Amino acid sequence: MKEEMRTIGYLCPACHKRVIQQRSVFALSASGAVVSCECGKSSLTIEAEENKFRLSVPCGVCGEEHLAECSADKLLHGRGIGLACPDTKMLCCFIGEDYAVEHEMEQLSLAAAKEREQGDDPAAFADSVIMYEILSELKEIAAREVYEQLLRIGEGDLIIGISFPRYSKRTISAMKFARDHGARCLGMTDSKVSPLNEISDVCLYAKSEMVSFLDSLVAPMSLINALIMAVGARDRERTFETFRELETVWKEYEVYGTVES
Prior knowledge:
The chain is of the alpha+beta class. It has helices at 25-31, 72-76, 98-118, 126-149, 169-180, 195-199, 218-234, 236-252; strands at residues 5-11, 18-24, 33-36, 43-49, 52-58, 65-71, 80-84, 91-96, 158-162, 184-189, 202-205.
């Protein structure tokens, strides 16, 4: 039986990097946890008590250390729990499912960077602030749409994740979400060192690097094309019927133009 895990995330006030680590529910219940940044200058501590946890959280926004208590049920189960900085009211820590923590930490990193750039003169960085807000909104919309589309995924479904260096975190998180909900995972990536290899039931590989500052997607596109052809060939009549219906729709709504001879 797969061990239930919880992901813990915070923003290091010293180096401003996101710190994200996993602990098992069993380990958290038994002895809590200490989650430290690789820079060695900050640590988040969780102390387990009967039916509750005590947390000491380094705040990547105001730079102070915040103390909090939460129930064991909220911390160990469900989508997750966020702890806010009492001074700025911004999230400084999130504990829960890995895809939710990744999303919240990405938002926190952007917000904290905006706060640092504003400094004592917010007007001087107006353009940067607006850009951060636009990027943040776009990222939030993109993340929300991914999980909305995957909401009903489960056993009997297959998700195909495609990711090449430098490997999209959003793709990896979506694959983990689908796997945790019982779906099978097919990865398309460049090598066995890809993070997709660890979370996929089956992985297909295609090289993408070139002696250039641009990667080539010729091999990956050929792999995708071969997969589409193989799936279509398994049920030829259904495939032909689909294209016959599409041709009717394309002609009726003049989707494509015609070449005059």
